[in-house]
Amino acid sequence: MARDYVGRKPAGNKRHSKKPTPPKRGFPVAAIVVLVVAIAAFVTVLWKINHSAKQPAPLPKAVVPKTAKPVTLKPLPKQPKAPDYITELENKQVTVKVPEQKKSTHQYQLQCASFRNREDAERFKAKVAFTGLSSQVKRSEGKSGVWFRVMLGPYPNRRAGDSDRHLLQRNGINGCQMWYWNNN
C-alpha cells in the first residue's frame, strides 16, 4: 500500500503546524522625535557659529625706528642695445674639420643556423629568403666533423647586421649570432 507523504501534515510537531505571524508594527513616533531633535540641534549649532564669528583684528602697523636715515637710490644703468642676431647669423661662416675615418678591417656576419647535412641548410636558407634577405650556405670542417652554416653578410658595421637580425626576429627566426673577423 502506497502512502502519500507530500500532502501529509506532521503529527505531534507544533513547530510545523502553524507559521508564526510577524508582529504588527505601529507608527515609529520615537524615531521621528529623535530625528527632529537632532536636526534642531544641528541648525542651532550652525546658527551660533555663524553669529559668533568676529571681524578679524587689524594687523599691527609696522614700527619704523626714528633714527633711520633716508636712503638714496642710485639710478639704474642704461639698458644695453640688443644685437641683431639674425644678420649676424646670416653672415657667419663656420668651418668644421672632419677627420678621415679609416676603413675597418673587421667584417661582420650573421650565423643563423648550422646543420650536419646540406639539404637542411638549404631549407633554412629558403626560410630566410622569405624575409627578403639573401644568405649563403658555407661548408666548414672542424674537430666534430662537417657543418653547413647558414650565413648572412658581410656587413660593414655591427649596426647593419643588427638591423637584419631584428628583421629576422620579427619574422620568427631567432638565434642568429653576430660574428666578426679581421681581414689582415
UniProtKB/TrEMBL annotation:
Gene3D superfamilies per UniProt: Sporulation related repeat
Region (Disordered): 1-24
Biased composition (Basic residues): 11-22
Swiss-Prot/TrEMBL keywords: Membrane, Transmembrane, Transmembrane helix
InterPro entries xrefs: Cell_div_SPOR-domain, SPOR-like_dom, SPOR-like_sf
Chain segments annotated as transmembrane: 27-47
Organism from which the protein derives: Celerinatantimonas yamalensis
Superkingdom to which the source organism belongs: Bacteria
Record flagged with keyword Membrane: yes
SUPFAM superfamilies: Sporulation related repeat (SSF110997)
Protein name as annotated: SPOR domain-containing protein
Residue span, SPOR domain: 102-181
Record lineage: Bacteria, Pseudomonadati, Pseudomonadota, Gammaproteobacteria, Celerinatantimonadaceae
Pfam families: SPOR (PF05036)
